[in-house]
Design goal:
292 residues, globular, mainly alpha
Length: 292
Amino acid sequence: MVKSTQSISSSNKSLIAIFLLILTTVLWGTSFILTKNITEDVPIFLYMGVRFAIAFLGFAPLFFHLKNLNKKTLLMSLFTGMIYFFGYAIQTYGLQTTTAGKAGFVTGLSAIIVPFFAWFGFKKLLNKRIWIAVALSVAGMAFLLLEGERGIILGDLIVLVSAFFWAFFIIYTDKYVPLVDIYSYSMIQMAVISSASFISSLLLGESYASLSFSPSFWGVMVYMGIGVMTLTILFQNWSQQYQGPTQTAIIFTLEPVFAALFGFIIGNEILSLFGWLGCGLIFIAIIITVLK
């Protein structure tokens, strides 16, 4: 009976993890067009510094977890925080010369990179179901990448570089979260990203005069900091205790779907028939991965 109860509990946590990872992709999907719009006026590293500082403050109710901070947690969160910093900085730079929808898709290529990194680096075997899902994701992403008249542009290739950082972030998150207190681990990540961003901003001499004092601007920044970062980093770090890196990566292929959707709603970016076909293939890949 105890074994059965534990099995049910584990199954419930796995389902909750799937739901939280999908919700994470929805929140991330909104961030592409908002980031693209904000960084037209606010320098990239200044924007990142402010956003991740707000994300760190969003953890205020959980600051008491910092008492669990130790050298191991500090080093792991420093390492993954810097991976996130480079990934996000490169992705944001690429967003300047491509659409939010296409940037979301190219970022989603981490879903293809992850299983092979996990296979070669950590000897994690892949079953046939995962191979089929990855193949469908590749096809779906190809349709999305070919969407539009401009084809592949410099911004797409720059964002592609960030996909490798996201793949590493997913893999090392999977490796580290069972070993640390995820709350203090997540807080230090936010502090590392914000600090690295402000240091980069100062070194590059970015202008702080571009910061707006309007309530609408800070409303969006609070949403981007707490809604899109504080919550999603908690969701991801907790969920990856119950979902493997390859399954997580496939679920994250939903991100370009939502990026394209919100790019249309907020930025009037329109997907063609090829784009929607790509979205459909990605959904099928996710269903194959998360349903047994």
